Amino acid sequence: MVVHEAKSTIGEVTAITAVCCAAMAAAANLLGAVILVRAFLADPDRLDDSLTLFATLGALVAAFAFGYGGLLLARRDQTGRWVLIVAAGAQVGLGVLGLLATLVNYDSEYGIRWFAEEPVLRSILIGFGGVPGAVTAIVNHSWAAALAAVVLGALVLLPAALPWTAAYTLARPKTVVGPNV
Fold first, then answer.
1. Cα separations (Å) of 170 from 34, 76, 163?
2. Domain boundaries, the chain
3. CA-CA distances (angstroms) from residue 28 to 31, 64, 96, 101, 123?
4. How many CA within 13 A on the CB side of residue 17?
5. What's the whole-model pTM score?
6. Is 80 exceeded by the pLDDT of residue 3?
């Protein structure tokens, strides 16, 4: 009987953290898309058609990117780490746009109808809805939702961008064919 000692390296811990946060971000985007579509189907006059469509498609693309990037990173594939960095960077960028829109009191003057003003605690939950949450923050000038959207992206971006995660993926043995988690 051979007993292998299980050692956990910093790179392994950061990669697992990035994968778990990516799964959370994928689920948040899917949930945000479902909530947005249900709200649109319940009352189509309450939400703007094209903004609903593009926010939903953006959420689905983001969910796929976070899910697929997390899967590749779990397999110690360097490509998955880069997919997570790009997807999380886009999520952070949307949140920052929401913060800027709130700061300068941006109004598109297109008469876009969106969700009504929400209390701060509910705005935070909306912001954790991924792309739909960030779009809601931009349209409604909600600093809490925008900050939550930034935090959601940063939770994935930070562990994925760490050098220890990169070293962990680059140290993958060439003979590994399947998952190496």
1. 37, 8, 10
2. 11-170
3. 5, 12, 18, 22, 14
4. 19
5. 0.85
6. no
